[in-house]
């Protein structure tokens, strides 16, 4: 293209889009450089240079905000010479005739650093050192790094597209990072945390987010990023390359991406090795972007600032659920969201998903229950409760006590928050009950009835997997169980609780001291548990008195008398099962409810080959049940 051709180029109409104005300004600025380079080693034609500068001024007048090159140069604090080198490297890609002009004038189609040093004003050697912005952030590349001044300069493709106003994520980054949109609305408790995160970022430190519900951590970070004018991108530390060189290269790409487009980065350390998390956080201090680390608190506190992300208070959780239901146009009864939020402690993303399920026709309670189910590993088993109130044979006063536990869960929001009881103390907001009595009197059955009535899972803690001989492990196991139960809104059942809650003893050696610490931890954790926990024991007298004081309710299950046993035998076989039984005569046999249920099942198996379950088979099953404890039909 000749100077006359460039001077004859018609002016672009006013009112063009920013994308077009950005392109025109980039091409016009490149034209100014071309005038200098084509004329080198002589002086550029003043008229031609003035005309090129005039076209640049006209192009810039079309802009309503800085060009992509302006913004990048400002973010990196590029000198005028560094800016010119970057623009010069785009020349062969931006305008095909540039390569022809460079070949004709200097013998090769791409510019070199040596040519830029000689031909452009304000030249300085430091512009192309590995630590200078152009190479540190991989904006330009030397085709032959062994000859820095003679090597052709090549602009990286991602940078070229950015300068042209095209946004996309580097493929290597797209493989490990995903965008996290900001929440539609942020509850006040989380808004305060997001403000704290922004303050940490303003001081140039990584924010280390810790909280009991991992799903909330990226949500709060995304809100903080949005308030800072950034988009949050989430990277799993476990997905980063393990080789130091490869990881450093990826972090440089992250840094460059942050310079090209405003972004904040969250690194999820869940599942990462502690040494990887530590090395990562040390490297994150060099990134020119806001950074959050999710989890791995014990490994990174020395390098980051800890920010706690709490559970949402019930009132805020109810408001968030109501708002989510409104967004999904989901129907619900008056006050239903508050009642559900009082039971199910869902993270903010799960509230949104549950609202979507409700809009699709799932009852809100069931939608939240499905979204809240937790995993307990081998430390507990989840029971889908089937027992009903009719299966219990207890005095009316005992049944009333059990029904009060159901009411305590159903009305948590009203009592604790609408009536203000939660404002008095943060302790004892849950419901803990002890079921005491001899074996087989219905303690576990009652827990199942309550769970079914509430529409919750019954989680039976396996004490053999929880209690450990290693110091501190029992507490860790219990903490995991309690946290999972709180997230899952399950009824937590500790059978034979005296194993854990026995009386503290006089300290004679280190074993006594650590055993007492375990009991003390259980007392503290039970008091802070916000759900429903039921403990059963056959030996109430061995329980620590401090533990008994923390219970909401103690229900003593009586050994069944003859009238109760007769009722149990009448209900022992499902309706429609052909069985010949004499409940009045069988009630004379001294068996608790659990023994009666076991004998009925055994008799059913004995009679399964015939048309009916005979009285003799029931009697045989009863004798076998008594024999388990060394007893016979002649006595207890």
Give short descriptive properties of this protein:
51% helix, six-stranded mixed beta sheet, Rossmann fold, ATP-binding, ATPase family associated with various cellular activities (AAA), 31 helices, 636 residues, disordered N terminus, P-loop_NTPase, alpha/beta, 5 domains, elongated, 14 strands, single chain
Please tell me about this protein's structure.
Keywords: ATP-binding, Nucleotide-binding. GO terms for molecular function: ATP binding; ATP hydrolysis activity. This is ATPase family associated with various cellular activities (AAA). It comes from Micromonospora chersina. This protein is of the alpha/beta class and about 625 residues long. Helix 20 (about 395-410) packs parallel to helix 22 and helix 24 packs parallel to helix 26. It has five domains: about 5-165, no CATH class; about 170-310, Rossmann fold; about 315-370; about 380-555, 3-Layer(aba) Sandwich (Rossmann fold); about 560-625, Helicase, Ruva Protein, domain 3 (Orthogonal Bundle). About 50% of the residues lie in helices and about 10% in strands. The strands form three sheets. Strands 3-5-6-7-4-8 form a six-stranded mixed β-sheet, with helices on both faces. Strand 6, helix 14 (about 275-285) and strand 7 form a beta-alpha-beta unit.
How much of the sequence lies in strands comes to 5-15%
Taking pLDDT < 50 over at least 5 consecutive residues as the criterion, the unreliable ranges are 1-13, 504-514
Helix segment tally: 31
CATH architecture of the largest domain: 3-Layer(aba) Sandwich
Shape: elongated
CATH class of the largest domain: Alpha Beta
SSE class: alpha/beta
Tell me the number of structural domains: 5
